[in-house]
Request: fold
Amino acid sequence: MSNSNPLLTISEQPNHAPDFSVIKEEHYMPAIQQGIEMARENIEKIKANPDKPDFENTIVALESSSEMLDNASSVFYNMLSTKGTDEMHNLAEQIGPITSNFSNDIMHDAALFARVKAVYDEKDSLPLTPEQQMLLDDTYIGFIRGGADLNAEQKQRLREISERMSILTPTYMNNSKKSQEAFELFVDSEEELAGLPESALNAAKHAAEEKGEKGKFLFTLDMPSYMPVVQYADNRDLREKLWRAYNSQAFGDEYDNCDTVLEIVKLRHERAQLLGYKDHAHYVLERRMAETPDTVQDFLETLKKAYKPAAEKDFAQLKDFAAKNGGPEELRPWDVGYYSEKLRQSLFDFSEEDFRPYFQLDKVIDGIFAHFSKLFNLSFKASEKYSIWHEDVQAFDVYDKTDNSFLGTLYADFFPRQGKRSGAWKSSFRDQGIFGGELQRPVITIVCNFTKPAGDQPALLTHYEVQTFLHEMGHAIHAMLSKVTHRSLAGTNVMWDFVELPSQIQENWGYQKEMLDGFAAHYKTGEKIPEELIQKLNDAKNFMVGWGGLRQVSLGLLDMGWHTTDPATIKDVAAFEDSIMKDVTFFPRMAGPMSTHFGHIFAGGYAAGYYSYKWAEVLDADAFELFLERGLYDRPTAEAYKNEVLSKGGSEHPVVLYRRFRGRDADPEALLRREGLKDAA
Reply:
């Protein structure tokens, strides 16, 4: 093995973080291939061990067997999302089948499974901690769900499905990204852009200049460019043009994802049935808090009953307002954002843009870090010791101020650019855990697509973007505060419908004067954000909550529809989506189906799991009620949450962790109370 490949050597960066200054595209494939070979050697050692299989020589040894492969893969897939060149996407289509094959080789290795099963069969007599028990259960069940008990023919078909899926997922993601990037709209005159806030005009002007079109305005489908148009532009034709483009991504163009969607759901269904499950949803939910599709469907239907009447009232109010204010005879989807913003301004006397001058990104960073310092006694120190993958990226060392112990490395990548996936997410280069007898601290990244600085104006965020920042930091802190032994159970490696609790609960603080006062100040004058503006924000918190809630429910139902329906009966993506959405939408479809660019469920791990956002909202609403009762920064409450939820990762069942923190199960009505759809108890 050559030591020239930085992905195959221990990095000399602080915390052994990847050295992005020396990692090149040509390093990925050799590193993946070599990592697989090293993992195979480790697997053979486990199988050849003459000692009786036990927890340490089999389960722990297996978990740590693919160290180099895991490291190389984490760097590759993180870079694919943040700087995905055509070459990187080509590599993804090559790497996917290779790693899929290796994974199947492991899952289908009879001798290896025999050792795992031998330990599992004795679990009731073994002196295991709850964490060890969880790792043993996860390992054994992982083999079963990976096809270890199938016959040779079935194993071969499962392997073929996995290989094909490993190509389809990056294909779907690449098509979505390419379709989005293909749309550019240049506007010649400012007169056509009446209503747009100055920040959006400046950004569009700056974007056009970067493309060599001085004097024009460039709009794309990146959120910071798209949203101001549909929210503020008086020009209805412009709103329609952008809305149709956004909602037709990867549909009817050269990057059409329809066939890819149909093949993905077909293969997911076939895999589930091969493994003995009715459908993909049953397969997935067996390892979730919800446990069954019926539970999820009942949950979504309960929410629908609460949200739909509220949404109908929201829409009636919106139509009435538009009619009285010169709106069209019939509202269309591209009118909703525009008139709802006008209605909100009319009812509450503020606009999202009113906040932007008070949310300078640098100050927001300081403020959110101060929030976590106050809540969990953490400190964040900017560091230039780390190499970064783009000049926009910032690196921080995170410490526990109680004993000044190092908790981990945090990267933040805030702005959109060519090749970067849309949206916002948290990801890991390495999770916390003990490896080779040594405690390893995590290397974490949060990625967003915020409004960029334009000219002399710094990056100024909306309140929504501040909430997004808090959300992703919630995930990051979950990873940072992890105190487990085994990395596969660290931090955010929890049941999927629990993973959004630590992120979503943080959004609650974004409405609190006590927090906002700490950092929100006018970027020019230094004036603190006015108290009345914060009050207006809170007064409007549940504005059109029925409309927004019903949309989330509709996406959950769409997800479940795709994964509980026999794909053999689905011939057309758009028609199928229409059949699911007809009862939870107020418009006929006027663009492409969402499924062609619904990355969460077709490329992002949320298949049969999109409901988890609302599921976790119930948990976060219930948990935050305790902070409201005892104090936003009540130390005993924060410590209990930190110790019983955040530090435990996936080492115990989330129901157990939540009960230990809250003293009971979550109140299912907490969310509806917060949203004003149910009276407080």
Q: What stands out?
A: The chain has four domains: 6-107+109-145, 183-246, 258-350+545-610, 356-528. Residues 6-107+109-145 form a domain with the Glutathione S-transferase Yfyf (Class Pi); Chain A, domain 2 fold (CATH 1.20.1050.40).
